[in-house]
Structure formats: structure tokens, C-alpha cells
């Protein structure tokens, strides 16, 4: 599998996994919120129902204690009838008792067999038989008349007691079965329900139904509230488990995972197709750009050669003057010798040999000019570098002398031989010497000097062209060898770019720097013959 295809598969898998995890997180959070909202709604409903029923208890206490404000037999009979009706109609009221707090009422039937600190019943309906109310006597006796107080009973019951207003010394006691404060169909089967009174547990009903597996990684939802009753401070608590199956439906997760997988890999395929199209288009554009660049570079190189040829023309013309002058001088001497009475054949032959040698030299110069102008790439030949430096020094010497610029040669005595094209290397050196001369002339440097040095360093040789001028601006270094970059007002910016091209063509390199004591240094590094890298 290719690296690109593997990356695409990994991207699609990561995208699919991220989508599935996001869906799972959303499902869990939304389910948790939904189950919590259901719990809150159920809790508020139960709170309202229990509060209403607690209010009914208070109303019963108020009405019954008002009927029993004295102990007249007729009034007691009416009170008994009402109490019996209440007990029959409200099953959660386990029993009712109208008791006397006055010990002098005496020896009639009591709720307990104890003596001394007893509650004497006036009316009991009828379920309180056997209940021991004696421990409540002191607490009820201390109650404020007309106020209802609640007391914890046994087996999930709690008692409500209310004293009648003075001068009556009676009290009404109700036993409430807290388990019947809610009807079976009213309580949520999926919640754990507890009812407490003054931190005493009255009802503890565990959840009968759970939606899904029992395993859960989320804390149960919780609802807690105290009912709206001043006399019955009952606290309602609901806890709902959050099972995993309820929070994260497996079927929905599997369905979404399948759809997300298809979408992810479809997206991967689409992106790969788009990337392939973009890559193809970019490759085509790059190929076209390279072809256009190569064409422009060829035109630029040719234009640079023609431009440089014009610059070299005056120097070459000066060079051609020397063989032509020598040929003319020797020819005139040979004519004089030939017209003498006794011609000296030896001197005439020597003059003709000089003419032949100078003519060949001039022809070689013209051939090089023709090859250079026609953009014909020359083949490197093994050349003596010091001879090339001496020749270009002679070629440019007249121009430098006309500018009052000294030219100094510091050539190593070691034979330096490299595979180069002599004409191209002369062109590079000519450009560097001319640039140095222009910089010295523009800066009006005192005692201007251009120096050419050759060195042998291991498998390489160096040709150093330096001057004592102002040097190179720091901002110019990054672009120094780029085409069309120039610091001259009338320059084309092709000279140094062409120099770099010609040097690199023979596996060399050219570098520029400023000397510590002022002036610019250009160093040409070439491999010595037999040391060039073979590609």
C-alpha cells in the first residue's frame, strides 16, 4: 500500500471515529438531559400531589378539632361520625383519636393499660386500638393550641396532633400511613423514591424498572424537594439510574456508525480524486512553466552572450591589432630583404614563419567569437589556468591603464590545470575585472587596484579577483547572482548571473564577500583536472 493511500485510509478512519464519538457523546448527553427532565417533571408532580394531601390533613385537623371543642355527648357523637367518614374515605389515614389531656377524666377505657401519664381517649376510630400514645402526652401538652405538629411513628407512619383552643383540654391525633401518600399508579417505577420526616425515613421504594442494562458510567439523576406544608416537613427524594443502554442505544449507534463509515470513505474517495486532478493540473502547469523558463533562459543566455561579446569586442580588437601589426612589420621587412641585391633567404623565412603564427592566432580569436555568438556550447578542454589569467590580464590591461587602475597578478608557481573552456573562463574573469574597475572608478578610490590571485588547495584551485574599492552593499548579497539584478544605473544585471552559470557548467562555484579591510572579493573555485565528480 502506497504512503498516500495509507494516509487517506488513516484520515478516513480518524474522521469516521471522530464522527462516531461525537454521535455517542451527543446521544449520551441528550439522553441524560431527557431522562433528567423526565425525573424533574415526575418529581414536581409528586411534590404537588403530596403537598395537596398534606394540606387536606391540615384541613381535616382544623374541622375536626373545631367540632370537638367541648366534651358534650351530642357534640362527641357528631365528631365521631365525621371522623369515621374521614377514615373510610382516606385510606392513608390509618386511625384518628380524640383524646383528653386532663388526667382527672379518669377511669374509663384508655388506649393503654398504663396509669399516671396516660392519654384518655374520648373517641377512637377504630384503628388505633393498642397504640401507645402515652409518650406523646407531654409533647402534645406543650403544643400551642390550634397548631398542628408532626411526630414520627412506626412502620412508615407519622402522627399529626393538634390541641383545641382553651378552655377545651382535648387534642386530635391522626396516624398517616406515608406509603399511601401516593397511589401505586402515581409513582414512577423507574425511580428510587424516599420520603423522610425530620431525617427519619418513612418510605423507601427502590426502582422497579430500568431502561436497559444495569451497567452505567453516569451518576444517577437526583431530585429532592420538601413539600409545601408548615406542619408536615416531609422531604421527597427521587433517584433515577442512568443505564448505558438508555443513554446510548446500540442500534442507533450501529446504524450511525455504518452511515458515517460510508460517508467517510466516500469523502476520502472524492478528496483523492480531487487531489489527483489538482496534482495533474499542477504537474501540467509546472511542466509548462519549466518549458517557458527554459526557453527564456536560453534566450537570456544567448542575449547575454551577444551583449558580452560586444563588451569584449573592443578588447579582442585590441588583441588582434598585435598580430596584424607584427604581420605587417614582418611582411615589410621581408619585402625589403627580397628587393636587395643579395636576398637573405633565412631572414625572409623567419619573417614568414612569424606571419603564419600570428595569422593562426588571429584566426583562433575570430573562431571563438563566432562560436560564442552562435550560442554553441563548447566542450571543456584541459587548460592551464595561470595562462588564461595572464591572457585576460593582457587583454584588459590597456583598458585599466586608461582608467589609471593598477592590475596586479599573484599567480601560484604550482601548475594549475582544469577542464574548462578558456574563452568562457576569460569571459568570467573579464566581467569580474570590469565590475571591479567600474566600482573603483565610481567611488573615485585613491590608488585603485585590481588584483588576481591563484591558489591550489587540495583537489581544488581558486581564482580570486579583489579590489580595494567600497565593497558590496549588505542588502545586495542575497540577489547578487540573480538575473536582472544590478546596482548600476545603466546595467542590465546579466554579468554576474552569466558568470555563475558558466562556472557551474564546469562543476565549479563562485562566491562573493567583503574584505575586512575594504573592497570586494570574488572567489572562483574549480576542481583540478582528474578531480571532477562524475555524475
Q: In a nutshell, what does this entry contain?
A:
The chain has 535 residues and is α+β, with helices and mostly antiparallel strands. Helix content is 49%, strand content 19%. The strands form four sheets. A five-stranded antiparallel β-sheet has the order 2-1-5-4-3, covered by helices on one side. A five-stranded mixed β-sheet has the order 11-13-14-16-15.
Features:
5-stranded mixed sheet, 49% helix, 5-stranded antiparallel sheet, rod-shaped, 535 residues, 19% strand
Give your account of this protein's structure.
The protein has 535 residues and is α+β, with helices and mostly antiparallel strands. Helix content is 49%, strand content 19%. The chain contains nine helices and 16 strands. A hairpin with a 2-residue loop joins strand 6 (192-197) and strand 7. Helix 8 runs antiparallel to helix 9. The longest helix has 89 residues, at 250-338. It is rod-shaped. Residues 105-116 have low confidence and may be disordered.
Amino acid at each position: 500500500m502506497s504512503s498516500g493511500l495509507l494516509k487517506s485510509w488513516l484520515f478516513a478512519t480518524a474522521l469516521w471515529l471522530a464522527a462516531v464519538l461525537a454521535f455517542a457523546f451527543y446521544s449520551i448527553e441528550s439522553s441524560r438531559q431527557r431522562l433528567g427532565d423526565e425525573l424533574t417533571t415526575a418529581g414536581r408532580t409528586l411534590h404537588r400531589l403530596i403537598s395537596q394531601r398534606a394540606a387536606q390533613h391540615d384541613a381535616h385537623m382544623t374541622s375536626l378539632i373545631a367540632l370537638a371543642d367541648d366534651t358534650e355527648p351530642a357534640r362527641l357523637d357528631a365528631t365521631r361520625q365525621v371522623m369515621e367518614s374521614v377514615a373510610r374515605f382516606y385510606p392513608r389515614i390509618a386511625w384518628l383519636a380524640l383524646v383528653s389531656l386532663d388526667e382527672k377524666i379518669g377511669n374509663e377505657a384508655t388506649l393503654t393499660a398504663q396509669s399516671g401519664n396516660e392519654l384518655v381517649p374520648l373517641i377512637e376510630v377504630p384503628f388505633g386500638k393498642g397504640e401507645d400514645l402515652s409518650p406523646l402526652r407531654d409533647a402534645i401538652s406543650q403544643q400551642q393550641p390550634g397548631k398542628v405538629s408532626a411526630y414520627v411513628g412506626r412502620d412508615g407512619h407519622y402522627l399529626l396532633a393538634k390541641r383545641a383552643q382553651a378552655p377545651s383540654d382535648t387534642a386530635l391525633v391522626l396516624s398517616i400511613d406515608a406509603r399511601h401518600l401516593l397511589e401505586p399508579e402515581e409513582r414512577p417505577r423507574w425511580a428510587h423514591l424516599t420520603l423522610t420526616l425530620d431525617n427519619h425515613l418513612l418510605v423507601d421504594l427502590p426502582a422497579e424498572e430500568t431502561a436497559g442494562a444495569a451497567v452505567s458510567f453516569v451518576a444517577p439523576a437526583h431530585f429532592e424537594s420538601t413539600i409545601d406544608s408548615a406542619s408536615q416537613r416531609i422531604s421527597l427524594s427521587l433517584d433515577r439510574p442512568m443505564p448505558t443502554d438508555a443513554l446510548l442505544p446500540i442500534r442507533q449507534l450501529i446504524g450511525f456508525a455504518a452511515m458515517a463509515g460510508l460517508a467517510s470513505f466516500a469523502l476520502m474517495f472524492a478528496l483523492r480524486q480531487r487531489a489527483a486532478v489538482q496534482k495533474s493540473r499542477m504537474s501540467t502547469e509546472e511542466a509548462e512553466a519549466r518549458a517557458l523558463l527554459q526557453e527564456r533562459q536560453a534566450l537570456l543566455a544567448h542575449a547575454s552572450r551577444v551583449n558580452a561579446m560586444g563588451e569584449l569586442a573592443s578588447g579582442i580588437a585590441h588583441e588582434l591589432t598585435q598580430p596584424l601589426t607584427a604581420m605587417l612589420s614582418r611582411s615589410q621587412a621581408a619585402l625589403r630583404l627580397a628587393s636587395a641585391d643579395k636576398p637573405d633567404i633565412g631572414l625572409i623565412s623567419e619573417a614568414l614563419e612569424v606571419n603564419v603564427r600570428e595569422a593562426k592566432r588571429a584566426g583562433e580569436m575570430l573562431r571563438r567569437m563566432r562560436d560564442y555568438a552562435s550560442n554553441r556550447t563548447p566542450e571543456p578542454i584541459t587548460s592551464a589556468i595561470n595562462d588564461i589569467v595572464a591572457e585576460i590580464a593582457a587583454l584588459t590591461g590597456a583598458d585599466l591603464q586608461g582608467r589609471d587602475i593598477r592590475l596586479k597578478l599573484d599567480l601560484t608557481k604550482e601548475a594549475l590545470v582544469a577542464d574548462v573552456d578558456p574563452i568562457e573562463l576569460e569571459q568570467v574573469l573579464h566581467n569580474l575585472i570590469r565590475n571591479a574597475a567600474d566600482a573603483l572608478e565610481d567611488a573615485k578610490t585613491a590608488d585603485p587596484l585590481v588584483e588576481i590571485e591563484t591558489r591550489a588547495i587540495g583537489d581544488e584551485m581558486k581564482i580570486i579577483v579583489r579590489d580595494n574599492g567600497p565593497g558590496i552593499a549588505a542588502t545586495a548579497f542575497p540577489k547578487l547572482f540573480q538575473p536582472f539584478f544590478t546596482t548600476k544605473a545603466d546595467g542590465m544585471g546579466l554579468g554576474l548571473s552569466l558568470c555563475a552559470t558558466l562556472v557551474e557548467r564546469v562543476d565549479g562555484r563562485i562566491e562573493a564577500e567583503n574584505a575586512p579591510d575594504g573592497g570586494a572579493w570574488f572567489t572562483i573555485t574549480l576542481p583540478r583536472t582528474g578531480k571532477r565528480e562524475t555524475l
